[in-house]
Amino acid sequence: MPVTTTSRRSFLQVLSAGTALAAGGWVGRAARAARRPNVVVILTDDLGYGDLSCYGATAVQTPHLDRLAAGGLQFTDGHSGAATCTPSRYAMLSGEYAFRKPGTGVLPGDANLILDPQRLSLASLLRGAGYRTGCVGKWHLGLGRGPLDWNAELRPGPLEVGFEECFILPATGDRVPTVYVRDRRVVGLDPADPLTVSYKEPLTGLPTGREHPELLTLGLTHGHDQSIVHGISRIGYQRGGRAAWWRDESIADVFRDEALAFVERHRAEPFFLYLATHDIHVPRVPHPRFVGATALGPRGDAIVQLDATVGALLDALDRHGLTDDTLLIFSSDNGPVLDDGYADQAVARLGQHRPAGPWQGGKYSPYEGGTRVPFLVRWPQRIRPGRSDALVSQIDLLASLAALLEVPLPAAAAPDSFNVLPALLGESPTGRTQLVEQASSLALREGTWKFIPPRGGANGRPAELFDLAADPGEEHNLAPADPARATAMQATLRQLREAGRSRPTTP
Ligand code: CA
Predict the structure, then answer these.
(1) Domain 441-499, what fold?
(2) What is the spatial distance between Cα 333 and Cα 439, in angstroms, rounded to a whole number?
(3) Ligand 1 centre and the CA of 268: distance in Å?
(4) How far is the CA of 281 from the centre of ligand 1 (A)?
(5) 288 Cα to the center of ligand 1, angstroms
(6) pLDDT in tens, 199-219
(7) CA-to-CA distance for 462 and 460, rounded, in angstroms?
C-alpha cells in the first residue's frame, strides 16, 4: 500500500519525537522500567462483581477501590480460575485449570501442598526474573507432605513454590488451625502447649459447636460445628497452641501490616507481593471500627474493611513513590455467597444490594456469577485508565507476565495460561476467545456464548446454552432452539478436557 503524504508526515513526526527522547536517554530508561514494574496481586475472597461501588454497588461504598479503578483498567469480563477458593488459587498460581489435577477441591486445614514445586508458578516465574517475592494472607493450598506436625517445620509450602517469604493463614478462617504461619513455622507457639489438629477423630479439649451451641457468639446455619475458638465453631478439631491463636477481628489489620512491611523492606528493588485477604470470607468478624459501617451487616462491613486494607496499600505505594512503577492487579477468588454457614444476617439485611451484579449465581455456581468477578489492573506508567470488555482470567497472569518480562515459557508450564498482556494493558479490546469456567460442573465460554453441559443429581438440569450479549442474566436457555451450537460447544469442552492443556505448545 502506498504511503500517503499524511501518514508519512505522522510517521516522521513520531520518528523525530522518538529521536529527541532517545537522545536524552529517556526511551531507554522508560523501556527498561516499563518491562520490570513491581507486581502486586491483591486476591480477595468471595467478593462479588456487584460488591464494589465502582461496579455499581450503592449499599456499600468502596472509595479506595474506586480510586484504584479510576486510575486503571476496569474489566467487565474478568474471571477467577474457579468458583471456589482452592481450585481458583491453584489455577492462578499454576496457570493450569484445577480440574486437570485430582485433589484440588476445597481443602481441609490439614491438607498437603497441592502445587508441584518442580513446576513453574507465578511466584517462581517472578523470582527467576529477579523479583523479591512474598506472600501474605490466606493460603488454602495445603502444606507439607504426609501427616503434619504443626510444632515443627511445615515443608513444602509457599517457600518451595517460589515465594522467598510468607506470612499466611494456612486454610480459611472457618477451618482449624486458627494460627498464622511465618515462612515454615506457626507464629507464637508455646512449646509447652503443642498444637494438634484433626479432621477425622474428635480431639478432647475444646468444646464443639455441635455439643455446646450455647457457647457460640456467632450462630450456625450449616456445618462448621466442630472446635469452638473465640466463640466461633470451625470445621475440624484443634487442641493446644492457645498462645498462637489469631483474633478474628484483627486478621485484616495483621495482613495489612505484613503487606506494608514487605513493601517497605523491598521498596528499592523489583518486588512481587501476593496479598490474599481473608475478607470477605466467613466467619465475617470485622474489626469493631468497621462494625455498622453499612446497613448490610457483617458482610457489608467486611467489604468496607477490605477497602481500607487496599487503601492502606495504595497509600504506601504513593508514600514510597512506587505507584507509577507498580502493576497492581485486584480481583476475587470466586463469586459472592451470602449464607455460607454462619448466621451473620447476610441474607436478612441484603435489601436491594446485588452481590453478583447483573450475573446469575455466585460462589459454587457454573453461571457467570461464579467466576466473573471484580478485575482491576493499574499501572500508571503503561495503562491508560478506562474500561475493558475483554475476556480474561486470573489463569492468564502467568503467561502474560512471562510475556511482559520476556521470559519464554517451558512447554510443560502453565498449560492453560494465555498471554493476554495486550488486553491487560488496554492495548487490545480482546483477550481470550475461549474459557472453561470451573464450578460444581464445568462450563464453556466462546466469545459471548456460554454452554453448561447437562447436570445430574437432585438439582439436575438439561444442557444449557446462553447468548450473554442478549441475555447476560442467563435466563433463556437456547439449547433446544440451537442444538447444533450446543452440541459443538459440548464437543469443544470435552476436547479441552481430554487434551490435557489448552495453550498451544508452540507460541
Ligand atoms: Ca473464596
Answers:
(1) Arylsulfatase, C-terminal domain (3.30.1120)
(2) 12
(3) 33
(4) 6
(5) 23
(6) 999 998 899 999 999 999 999
(7) 7
